[in-house]
Description:
β4 and β5 (115-119) form a beta hairpin. The chain has one domain: Vaccinia Virus protein VP39 (Rossmann fold). It is of the alpha/beta class. It has helices at residues 13-22, 34-38, 40-44, 62-68, 80-89, 127-130, 150-160, 188-195; strands at 51-54, 72-77, 94-98, 106-110, 115-119, 133-138, 161-169. The protein has a 7-stranded mixed beta sheet with strand order 3-4-5-2-1-6-7. Helices cover 31% and strands 20% of the residues. It catalyses: S-adenosyl-L-methionine + a thiopurine = S-adenosyl-L-homocysteine + a thiopurine S-methylether. It comes from Sinosuthora webbiana. It is found in: Cytoplasm.
Amino acid sequence: SDxxxxxxxxxxxxxxxxxxxxxxIGFHKEQGHPLLKKYLDVLLNGRSGLRIFFPLCxxxxxxxxxxxxxxxxxxxxxxxxxxxxxxxxHSLPYCEEPVPEISGAKMFQSTSGNISLYCCSIxxxxxxxxxxxxxxxxxxxxxxxxxxxxxxxxNLMINLVEKNSSYLLVTVSYDPNKHKGPPxxxxxxxxxxxxx
Length: 196
């Protein structure tokens, strides 16, 4: 269960942008993830009107699904192309504005106001900028983060959630010596040490 040859692997921001430009986005799912549907009750915990965070959101269809249920969705994605594709594929009008606290960052918000997507590095965000969240849907973020950045990522996520929040995390299990990632293999023991 060691991280094998993945421990030193680094995928740059440019490589992620290139994946979007080339349409090499096998990680994007056209249908909502079955595990979110299965564990929706755990995420919502009987509550309505939640603020739900999508780290490294891409153009996840679940964002619109949860917004249509009355939740407030906030995502972060480094690819502006992915963010714009999300809005156009769902025929959602939006406005775009700079994020004064983050150089070069933009925030794209649906005109209905219930979906806000930040286009920047996730590590540039803080609760002072985006507030705190009642729930997190981490379908492909932790497994996409470079192994050397996992602690930094986990610390950020812990700081972005309210005390009684729910965090749904999807990981993949395989022999890390046979695949260089991403998605990266994150053993359960490491998840426990990262998030407590």
